[in-house]
Amino acid sequence: MPRKRDTDDINIEIEADESDGDDGGTNKRTNRRQGAGRGGARGRGRGKKPASEDEDEDDEDEAPRGRRGANKKKPVKKRGGRNNDDDDDSEDEAPKKGRKGAAKKKKGGKAQDSDEDDSDAGKGKKGKKGGKKGGKDEEDSKGKKGDAKGKDKGKDKDNDKDKKKKKKKDDSSDTDSNTNSEEEESMSEGEMARLMEEVEEKKKLIATIRNKPWRMKRRLVHLKEAQEFVDKFEGALGKGKGRKWYAYKVMMTKKWIKFQRDFENFRTACIPWERKIKEVESHFGSSVASYFIFLRWMYGMNLVLFGFTFGLVVIPEVLMGLPYGSIPRKTVPRAEADTAQDYSVLMDFNGYCKYSVLFYGYYNNQRTIGLLKFRLPLSYLMVGIGTFGYSLMVVIRTMAKNADVGGGDGDEGEFTFAWKMFTSWDYLIGNSETADNKYASITTSFKESIVDEQENQKDENIHLRRFLRVLANVMITCSLGGSGYLIYFVVKRSQEFANRDDLSWYEKNELEIIMSLLGLVCPPLFETIAELEDYHPRIALKWQLGRIFALFLGNLYTFLFALFDEVNNKLEEEGAIRNASLWAMKEYYANYTRMLNDSNSTPPPMPPADVIRGPCWETAVGIEFVKLTVSDIQVSYLTILIGDFARAVIVRFLNYCWCWDLEAGFPSYGEFDISGNVLGLVFNQGMIWMGAFYAPGLVGINVLRLLSSMYYQCWAVMATNVPHERVFKASKSNNFYMGLLLLILFLSLLPVVYTIMTLPPSFDCGPFSGKPKMFDVIMETIDLDLPAFLGTLFSYAA
Amino acid sequence: MGNKQTIFTAQQLDAYQDCTYFTRKEILRLFDRYRDLAPQLVPLDYTCQPDVKLPYELIGSMPELKDNPFRQRIAEVFSEDGEGNMTLEDFLDMFSVLSEMAPRDLKAYYAFKIYDFNNDDFLCKSDLEKTLNKLTRNELTEDEVRMVCEKVIDEADLDNDGRLSLEDFQHMIVRAPDFLSTFHIRI
């Protein structure tokens, strides 16, 4: 017996060395652990075998042997009659090849760490890199996010702590107890440690078992064994003083895992519109469906923003602030009172709309309101900043998730044919018409590639091509400049209109109409000009998107600059009105005392509707944004109705009595314009971000818009569009659109931050009225509410 | 979550959740889909683990699969007997691998098996030709087919043995931008 144990000990060391060599470059801690575990398992395998542990021993044997097998191409030992040779061999090969394949992938340090965390007992460490990456993917993917990693981390921490405790306990129990030989002592302690390792590895196996390319039956059997092993030995491990604590911790971990699983189940059940998207997907393929998934994601984000704004700004003001009509800023001025309820005035967001919670001007600048001493101005500012902060966090998180999915940015021509062959069929297609289309487009695509391949040898007329491209770019730059100037001109005109009263509907809404029309007309114009350039379709799409982006951006910023002019005008006006209103107040009091001939009584405050109101520039800005958003909504809905629906109806019914085949020929049915729609969504969100600070109700309007858009567009797509004919799509479109969203976020942050920092708030409206700058509310809070030392701290910092 | 279902024991459901990427609700929904294919063959009580196999014809007629040119291969790869006749566990396994949550490497492994028509663990020329013909429904001429297959082997064969091993295939497919989004069935 002793000799055997010696050999076992030596074996342990050998294994540890091997493993160090093997895993060169990986975490030393994990290394030693694994090495000990491996040797330990083998030692136990060859040492005494209590009958009850027979089954599990074999399992552990298989585990380390599997690891060795991964290194030396030895097939894993089978347990009686369970598996096919096929699975084992392929299982061996797969991780081995996965390992090599994975080694070629670019993976950063983060991957290394997570790889180690997810390592499992079934295969060699390196061999499971594929599975580990899979584990990481699995973590990152929807619905199963925190599970494996959380479980592993929790278990690792548990086991580490327990191991240390175990060692201490064992030491104390060893020194206390009466043992025959030192070897037996170390065996029991070493055995404990090894047992710990095994339990830990089994737990890891359980966590990552779904990543293994095994048959379901085999997985189930392995899972059952692993679970039984863990259950049996987890109890046994807790001995001595720490037993109850250990058992308690184990139970809490199990409950936590169960809770996490239930929570994930609940969360995936909450995701709306899954059936709808599936239907669209099976008819139109994954690219069209990706637009709807993006829409759903935006809806979720806007819902959260709406929750913040509504809960922290609107509700407190409504519940705890002064009611409508009590103070000047909350009342419709006498002059406007007659028309305040007219539909046309309300549609312009004047009248009662203007003096409501929708806009900045309604909010009172009282420092604290209500019983709870809720600091509304501070909350308003914080929510405004928090909106951007939250959006930034969410966008970056989604980008990080998508970056993994997108794969590498391989050279365009590196695997053209191979990718065409293996990734062109869209498995989501569940409709025979779409399938027919897909077959046709795949065939066409192959034929085109073959022709391209054969033509590659031909000499191209480079100079003509370059000249045409330069020409096209010049033309497009001209049209971009032209559209920018047009908007500026229209904004100037609208300022003139503001002074007149007899405006037609067109003149009142001219600005918004022109902006929306530009957004409609220019993209097809760009596409036509781009035909001169003769690019590969994927590249051409990127250019197109870039140009549309520049167009929208230019328009938006021109609009903003024009708006700034208006704001400055209003600020000047404000100075004059302020004097006028003070003067009017004095006059009112003078009149009152004269009437009553009693100069001692204090006159009641002037009725709110009569107070001369300043030209609240923030509300004006808010109104502009709301009008822009509303007109954008109207235009987009109308476009779908006319451009898609009416077209489809005409093609369908006029076809019976028309000379040529309308369905196959000229108008035919429309295709769903993915990029146009996504860009529209992105820019709409940019406008919301810009306007939300000045019009808290805007986010609510947007939520409603997205909700109705989802249903409306789903219906429109199914009823009026046909699947695309061309098979290409912008390859990493998901991250490209997220990148656009991020850019828009920063660009819309700038104006808001600029106005907060530099422009003085209006003197008589909004939560910051009376202060020199908006962010002074923070200074005030620090001075008055926080303990003194924080105030001095900030003043040193500032 | 209500525990009113009597189809599976709680342990079975937990085990399935551990072994696939599905939640409890999805597993039950999948069971309903499986049963709908042949209500008279599939019992409502799986607690005793009955040995029920649905023939390939029923699986291949599912709306998610019926238009897929590779449905036969998919069923063969995931079925135990290799003929396409699937038990419930094979069924769950298949949709789990093809679901959105499955990692890239797992999918690549199974994609390789699907496209390997002669099951020799290599994608040889004949496998590629069969794949291409299924994709284009035999619309390409023989010359074109031959040319494309040669190009594919040129591009992806790293060890220069004239055929694609699993490693070659994986190396090529993990770089493909569309692979994850197309090799995906939503159920």
From TrEMBL, chain A:
Ranges of Basic residues compositional bias? Answer: 66-81, 97-109, 124-133
Chain segments carrying region Disordered: 1-191
- Compositional bias, Basic and acidic residues, is annotated for 134-162
Its family remark reads:
Belongs to the TMC family.
**Recorded topology in the membrane:** Multi-pass membrane protein
Name-wise, this protein is Transmembrane channel-like protein
- Drop me one GO molecular function for this one: mechanosensitive monoatomic ion channel activity
List residues of the TMC domain.
616-731
**Organism of origin:** Eleginops maclovinus
Biased segments, Acidic residues type: 9-23, 53-62
Listed under GO biological process in this entry are: detection of mechanical stimulus involved in sensory perception of sound; vestibular reflex
Localization terms from the record = Membrane
**A Pfam family this chain is assigned to:** TMC
Which PANTHER family does UniProt cross-reference here?
TRANSMEMBRANE CHANNEL-LIKE PROTEIN 2, TRANSMEMBRANE CHANNEL-RELATED
Domain of life, source organism: Eukaryota
Give a GO cellular-component term.
plasma membrane
Note whether Transmembrane helix occurs among the keywords.
Answer: yes
Record key words, sorted? Membrane, Transmembrane, Transmembrane helix
Q: Where are the transmembrane segments?
A: 303-324, 378-396, 470-491, 544-564, 687-707, 736-757
TrEMBL record, chain B:
Q: Does the keyword Magnesium apply?
A: yes
Q: What is this protein called?
A: EF-hand domain-containing protein
Glycoprotein: present as a keyword of the record? no
UniProt feature coiled coil, ranges? none
Q: Gene3D superfamilies, per this entry?
A: EF-hand
Which BP terms from GO are recorded? calcium ion homeostasis
GO MF assignments: calcium ion binding; magnesium ion binding
Q: Name one Pfam family in it.
A: EF-hand_7
**Where on the tree of life does the source sit, at the highest rank?**
Eukaryota
Entry's PANTHER family? CALCIUM AND INTEGRIN BINDING FAMILY MEMBER 2, CALCIUM AND INTEGRIN-BINDING FAMILY MEMBER 3
CDD domains from the UniProt entry: EFh
Alphabetic keyword roster: Calcium, Magnesium, Metal-binding, Repeat
Q: Where is the EF-hand domain?
A: 144-179
InterPro entries in alphabetical order: CIBP, EF-hand-dom_pair, EF_Hand_1_Ca_BS, EF_hand_dom
